[in-house]
Amino acid sequence: LIPCILGTFTIVFTVQQQVLSQQQHEIDRQNQRDAQRETAFNAYINDISNLLLNTNHTNKTNFFLYIRTKTLTVLRSLNPERKKYIILFLYESGLLQGTGLDLSGAELDNVELIGPYKLDGLYLPSTSWENALI
To answer: Which interval of the chain is the signal sequence (predicted)?
Structure first.
C-alpha cells in the first residue's frame, strides 16, 4: 500500500512540476517578447526624434517616406498600447495633421485613443482601426 501511495505521489508531483515549468516557460517567452517590443519602441522614438531635431527637411518626400517606412515597420511588431504612444508621438510632433505623413495601410487595431488626448486635425486615412476606441 505504501509503495502505491509513494508512486502516486511521485506521479502527481512530476505532473505538477511539468505544468509549473510550462507556465514559467510561457511567462519567460512573454517577458522576452515584451522586452523586444520595448526595445523596438525606444529605438523608433530615438531615431525619429533625432531625425526631427537634426535634419534639414529640404527633401520632404524622402523625409516623409523614411518616417512612413520606419513607422509601418515598427507598428507591425508592437502591441496596441505602444502603437497608441507612437501615434501620440507623431501627432504631438506635428506629423499627423494635414497630408504630410501617409500612414495608409497601418494596422491600428485595438488601439485606445480615448482619454485626455486632444487630437484635433488627426489625419489617418486608409488605416485599420478594428476594435479600436477613438
So the answer is: 1-21
